[in-house]
Amino acid sequence: MTAEERSRVRRRVVAPDGRVLLLALPTGTVLRPGQVLAVQEGVAYRVTAAEEDVLVVYPRDLEEAVRIGHFFGNLHREIEVQDGAVVVPWDGVLLHRARQMGWQAEQDRRPFHGHLRGGHHP
Q1: Angle between helix 62-74 and helix 92-100 axes, rounded to 10 deg
Q2: What is the pLDDT of residues 31-48, one digit of tens each?
């Protein structure tokens, strides 16, 4: 599931083996990769992070990494660090802003293990 899909509480999910799971979770629930969705006939169905478009920023040093983290934090964006790069859900405007700030940034397609938050607070 993409980060956006993991925040949708009422939906139909088709597992890789074709089993259909109907979700009706409490409002505000956010699924995390690794979480068990259901156990049926002895098979546990776990949430996995699907490949999706992301923005990847490659800090040159620790100081730049802190500035990048602060920038995205002020925007209330969830980030994760993958192999020394800062990864956030895709946003073309943020790619432009990151490049304006002189950071090495690109669009990529990879799993994002964080989640999207509604509004400005968790």
Answers
A1: 140
A2: 999 999 989 999 999 999
Amino acid, single-letter form, for residue 113: H
Cα distance between residue 21 and residue 32, in whole Å: 16
Residue 57 near residue 99, CB atoms below 8 Å: no
Q: DSSP characters for 41-58?
A: TTEEEE--PPEEEEEEEE
Helix (H/G/I), strand (E/B), else coil: 77: coil
| Tokens of residue 73, six digits | 């934090």
- Per-run averaged pLDDT (10 residues), the chain, 122 residues: 89 92 90 91 93 97 96 93 94 97 98 66 41
Q: Which residues contact 71 (CB under 8 A, 6 or more apart)?
A: 98, 101
In the chain, what are the domains?
5-46 (no CATH), 51-111 (3.30.70.790)
Assign 109 to helix, strand or coil.
strand
Rounded Cα–Cα distance for residues 64 and 24 (Å): 42
How many alpha carbons fall within 13 Å on the CB side of residue 80? 14
